[in-house]
Design brief:
- With 374 residues, the chain is of the alpha+beta class.
- The protein has 3 domains: 116 residues, Butyryl-Coa Dehydrogenase, subunit A, domain 1 (Orthogonal Bundle); 106 residues, Butyryl-CoA Dehydrogenase, subunit A, domain 2; 147 residues, Butyryl-CoA Dehydrogenase, subunit A, domain 3 (Up-down Bundle).
- The protein is built from 11 helices and 9 strands.
- The strands form 3 sheets. A 4-stranded antiparallel beta sheet has the order 2-3-7-6, with helices on one face. It has a 3-stranded mixed beta sheet with strand order 1-4-5, covered by helices on one side.
- α9 runs antiparallel to α10.
- The longest helix has 37 residues.
- It starts with a helix and ends with a helix.
- 44% of the residues are buried.
Length: 374
C-alpha cells in the first residue's frame, strides 16, 4: 500500500506543480481560487477519493483522502487545502452516510468530478460554537420544508452548488430540535453574499449565505436528529484539520531548515548557531509525536473506533502546534519572514484560523475535560 500511496502523492505533486503553484499567489491577490481548479482536481482524481466506485469515486479510504490535504498543506496551499477538506472530507461523507439513494446518486458523482462544489452552513452571526443558538428555521409545509435564515463564514460559499444547512425544526427543543438539510444553490430564495476578506487564507472562498423561504423535500438524515448527526461526523472533520495542521508544520519546518543552511550570520550559517539547532530539533520532535498520534487516529477512524474526545485531542494539539511552528520558524527567517514574498509569512497568517474553525481550542478542551471528568 505504501508504494501506491507514493505513486498517488507523486501524481498529486505533479498536478500541483502544473496547475496550482504557478498561479497560487495570483489567486491570493485576487481573493479567490478559480472555479476551474475544482474541475481540474476532479478530472485528475484528487477529490472525494474515498467515495464508492459506484458513484465514480476510486473507493479509497480516509488515509488516502488525508494524503491529499496533507500534501496541499505541506506545499503551503492552505486555502485550497481548507476548501478541498470541506468538500471531500466533510460535505461528501455527510451525503454518503445520511443521504437518500436519490441524493447520493444525484450529488456524489458531481462532487467527485468537481462539477459540483460542496459547502456546509452551521455558523450564524449570533451562533458559532454553540449550535443550539442557531436561528435559521425550517418550517414544515405540505410539499416539504421552507428554510429561512442567515449563515456566515461559510467555506466554499461562493462556488458551492450544494450546501448542508443546519436549521431549527423544533425551536423549543434545543439541540433535539435541529435538523440538517441539503440545499441546491439554484433553488429560489438561496442567495450568496459577498466573499469575505480574511487576515489569512486569502484565496479561500468564505461567504455569507441567505435563505428566504427555500423549499426542500425533507431533511438529510433523520428529522430533529441533526445535532446527533453532527456529533457522529465531527470526529472526521476535526481529524482532517489536524492533518492539515501537521502537513503545514512539516512544510514550514523544511523551508526553515533550508533557509537557515543558506543564511549567514556572524560569519557562519544560521543553522550552526545553537539556538537555531535547538529550536528546529524541538519543533521536529513535536511534529513527529503529533504525527504518530494522528496516524493512530486515522487507523481508529477507518476501524470505526474514533471517538469525539480523541479527535478533539488531535485537533487541539496539532492546530496549537501549527501556530507555534509558524511563529518560531518566522522568527528564524528574521526580517525576511515578515515579507509577503516568503511562504513562511503567508503560512503564519494562514495558521491562525485553525485554532478557531471546526471547534475552537477552548471547545476542544471542554470536550476533553468532560470525557476525563465524567
Amino acid at each position: 500500500m505504501s508504494g501506491e500511496f507514493d505513486l498517488f502523492r507523486d501524481a498529486l505533486n505533479r498536478f500541483l506543480d502544473q496547475k496550482v503553484a504557478p498561479f497560487y499567489q495570483q489567486w491570493e491577490d485576487q481573493g479567490i481560487i478559480p472555479r476551474s481548479v475544482w474541475q481540474d482536481m476532479g478530472q485528475a482524481g484528487f477529490l472525494c477519493v474515498d467515495v464508492d466506485e459506484a458513484y465514480g469515486g476510486c473507493g479509497g479510504d480516509l488515509a488516502l483522502s488525508a494524503l491529499v490535504v496533507q500534501t496541499l498543506s505541506l506545499r503551503g496551499f492552505a486555502a485550497l487545502a481548507t476548501n478541498v477538506s470541506v468538500h471531500s472530507d466533510i460535505v461528501t461523507p455527510y451525503i454518503s452516510h445520511l443521504g437518500s439513494d436519490a441524493q447520493k446518486a444525484h450529488w456524489l458523482p458531481k462532487l467527485v468530478t468537481g462539477e459540483a462544489v460542496g459547502a456546509i452552513a452551521m455558523t450564524e452571526p449570533g451562533a458559532g460554537s454553540d449550535l443550539q443558538a442557531i436561528r435559521t428555521q425550517a418550517i414544515k409545509v405540505d410539499d416539504g420544508f421552507r428554510i429561512s435564515g442567515q449563515k456566515t463564514f461559510i467555506t466554499n460559499g461562493q462556488h458551492g452548488d450544494v450546501c448542508i444547512v443546519a436549521a431549527k425544526t423544533d425551536p423549543n427543543a434545543g439541540a433535539k430540535g435541529i435538523s440538517l438539510f441539503l440545499l441546491d444553490k439554484s433553488s429560489q430564495g438561496y442567495d450568496v453574499g459577498s466573499n469575505l476578506e480574511k487576515i489569512g487564507q486569502h484565496s479561500g472562498d468564505t461567504s455569507e449565505l441567505f435563505f428566504d423561504d427555500v423549499l426542500v423535500d425533507g431533511p438529510l438524515g433523520q428529522l430533529n436528529q441533526g445535532f446527533k448527526h453532527l456529533m457522529e461526523e465531527l470526529p472526521r472533520e476535526r481529524l482532517i484539520l489536524a492533518v492539515c495542521a501537521l502537513g503545514a508544520c512539516s512544510g514550514m519546518l523544511q523551508w526553515t531548515v533550508d533557509y537557515t543552511k543558506q543564511r549567514q550570520l556572524f560569519g557562519q550559517a544560521l543553522s550552526e548557531l545553537q539556538n537555531t539547532r535547538f529550536t528546529l530539533a524541538n519543533l521536529d520532535t513535536q511534529i513527529s509525536v503529533n504525527w504518530a498520534f494522528v496516524e493512530r487516529c486515522i487507523t481508529d477512524y477507518m476501524a470505526g473506533n474514533l471517538d469525539a474526545v480523541t479527535a478533539s485531542k488531535a485537533k487541539l494539539s496539532a492546530t496549537e502546534l501549527q501556530c507555534k511552528v509558524a511563529d518560531d520558524c518566522l522568527q528564524l527567517f528574521g526580517g525576511y519572514g515578515y515579507m509577503k514574498e516568503y511562504p513562511i509569512a503567508r503560512a503564519f497568517l494562514d495558521a491562525r484560523v485553525q485554532r478557531i474553525y471546526g471547534g475552537a481550542s477552548e471547545v476542544m478542551k471542554e470536550i476533553i475535560a468532560r470525557g476525563l471528568l465524567k
